[in-house]
Each structure stands twice: as C-alpha cells, then as structure tokens.
Design goal:
Keywords: Cell membrane, Membrane, Transmembrane, Transmembrane helix. By secondary structure, the chain is mainly α. The two termini are about 30 Å apart.
Length: about 325
C-alpha cells in the first residue's frame, strides 16, 4: 500500500461529519413533502422511520465496523415494548418512545457481550441468531404478542397532549420528522466526539487502536448499545404511528432491507443512510405498484448499478462530485 493510500485511509477513518448542503436538501425535501404531498404522508412517515433505522445500523456498521444481519431484533423489541407500554401502562407517546429505546438498548447491551467478542462471518451469524431467537420468542408468546395476528388494540395519545394522530398522517409525519431531526443531531455530535472518532479508527485497524490504549471492546459495546436504542426508537415510532406490531418487525427481511438501504446510501456518512432509506422505500413502493410480482428485480438492478458505479453509495457519489467541482 503506497503513502497516498495510507493517507486516504487515515483521513477516511477520522472524517468529521459537518452539516452541509445535503442536510439542507433533506430538510427542504421534508418541508416540500409536508406542503405538497398531503396524499403521501403515510408513506413519507414510513420513509422517515426507515431513515432512523438505517442511521442506527450506520452507527454500528458504518462507523464501528460491526457486521449485522439481525438489526431488526432491536427494531422489533422497541416496537413491541412501545405497544405493550401503550396497551398496559400509558398511551403517552413520548414516554413510549423512551421505553422502546430503553428496551432495545438493553437487548443490544446483553447481546453485545456475545456478538462483539467475534468478527467477520461468526459475528454475522451471531447477530442473525439473536434476531431469530427473538422472532421465535415473539411467535411463541402469543398471550403477550398475539403472534402472527399482530399486536393491536392500543391507543396513542396526542403528542404533547395537543396534536392528535389523524388518518391523513400529518401528525405522524411531523412527529417522525422531529424525532429524526433529534436523532440526527445526536449522532452528528456523537460521531464527532471521541467515541465516534475512535470507533472509526477501530473499524479500520483494531490492533493499532489497542496499541494506542483505546479500550476497543468497551467502545464498540457502547456504540452497539446506542445503535440498538436508536433502532428501538424507530420501532417504537412504527408501533405508535401504524397502531400494529407484527412478527415482521423482527424478521430477517427487515434486517436485509436496512442493509440494502445502507449500501444504497453509503455507510460512514450519516446523510447517506437517509438517502438510502428514501431511495429504497420510494422505489419499492413504486415498483410494487407497477409490477407486484417482479418488483424485487428493479431493486436488484438498482443495487447492482450502485455497487458497480458508486461502491461507497449515493453519499459517496455526491461527495466526489462536489469535490471535483470545488477543485475546478
């Protein structure tokens, strides 16, 4: 590896995430959707939920290098926790979000002890095993989760006691956007702090970071727990806005989908996770509407093109394009 390659590796490992035009474009897109997309707000809310979920995976995988095929485990735990809280304790939505985050964070905390002791294929299989185990538990505990029929019958109070969830999805979309904004700001702060910077170094070279005195296992464990909690927030939002939680919230399909979102958008750049979620959900919706049988082929073709011509995702493509124009 030559000197220039080493330099690029170091710069990439410790890239600081600043607010930029991509962030402004995302805010503008949300405002325009709210103004002109009144008939698509339910779909837009799902886009926002998936964006939060993709951000959670980006934190663990894009920054910490933790491979996962079972991130839906935390989405599902958060969703079921929020739904059960609304059903048996309180219908207040903000506290429900916190319950979902705490429950998923605990799941990440406990599973991280096993998952983070391994690397590579073993780590992938362990994350898949955790998600599969939780899926089977939810399926067996029908008296609690209602199994295949889905958990329903709970109400969600107006947000802050003022904004009632409506059938048009206006409140749900705004509520989800506010949560996304807060999560995004938190993650920007986190990845620029010492934990985020060292996590990127751990992703590139664990041995070197250990030699520098960084507690690698503890840093990854903390990052993984935070990632799980954010995935739980996404699951709790889904439960509150859709008023139903099914076994699909723990399924492998959801874990695979969020991996595709991250691949499309580009790992290691927070706005890339959001780009990927937007592209995946909207493309899936339109392709399924046009051809309900073969719509997955469209996603496959797009993914192949992205991997071939933009291996670091849409965010990387945008970054390179802007960089070339700035250099001229």
């Amino acid at each position: 590896m030559n000197t220039q390659s080493n330099r690029n590796l170091v710069v990439g490992a410790f890239r600081r995430q600043r607010y930029n035009l991509a962030d402004v474009a995302l805010v503008a897109a949300a405002i325009l959707t709210l103004i002109f997309g009144e008939y698509y707000l339910a779909l837009a809310a799902m886009v926002v939920i998936m964006a939060i979920f993709a951000l959670s995976l980006d934190l663990a995988q894009g920054y910490g290098g933790v491979e996962s095929l079972g991130h839906a485990a935390f989405f599902g735990v958060g969703a079921y926790a929020a739904a059960l809280y609304a059903l048996h304790v309180s219908s207040e939505p903000i506290s429900g979000l916190l319950v979902g985050a705490i429950a998923a964070g605990l799941a990440g905390l406990l599973s991280g002890f096993a998952v983070l002791r391994t690397q590579g294929l073993t780590q992938l299989m362990l994350t898949l095993a955790v998600a599969s185990l939780l899926y089977e538990l939810a399926n067996v505990a029908k008296s609690i989760t209602n199994g295949d029929d889905g958990l329903t019958g709970y109400d969600v109070d107006p947000v802050l006691g003022l904004f009632q969830f409506d059938i048009f999805g206006f409140t749900g979309f705004v509520y989800a956007c506010v949560v996304l904004l807060l999560v995004y700001a938190l993650l920007k702060k986190l990845v620029n702090a010492s934990i985020g910077q060292t996590a990127q170094g751990i992703r590139e070279n664990q041995i070197r970071m250990r030699m520098l005195g960084v507690p690698v296992e503890r840093r990854l464990w903390l990052l993984y727990t935070i990632s799980a909690a954010i995935a739980g927030i996404a699951g709790a939002l889904s439960a509150q806005i859709n008023r139903i939680v099914g076994l699909d919230s723990l399924a492998f399909t959801l874990s695979a989908n969020v991996l595709v979102m991250l691949a499309l958008g580009g790992p290691g750049r927070l706005y890339g996770a959001i780009f990927g979620a937007i592209l995946f959900v909207l493309l899936s919706d339109r392709a399924a509407a046009i051809d309900p049988t073969n719509w997955l082929a469209v996603l496959g073709i797009v993914l192949i093109l992205i991997v071939r011509y933009a291996p670091d995702g849409l965010a990387g493509l945008v970054s390179r394009t802007v960089g070339k124009r700035s250099a001229k």
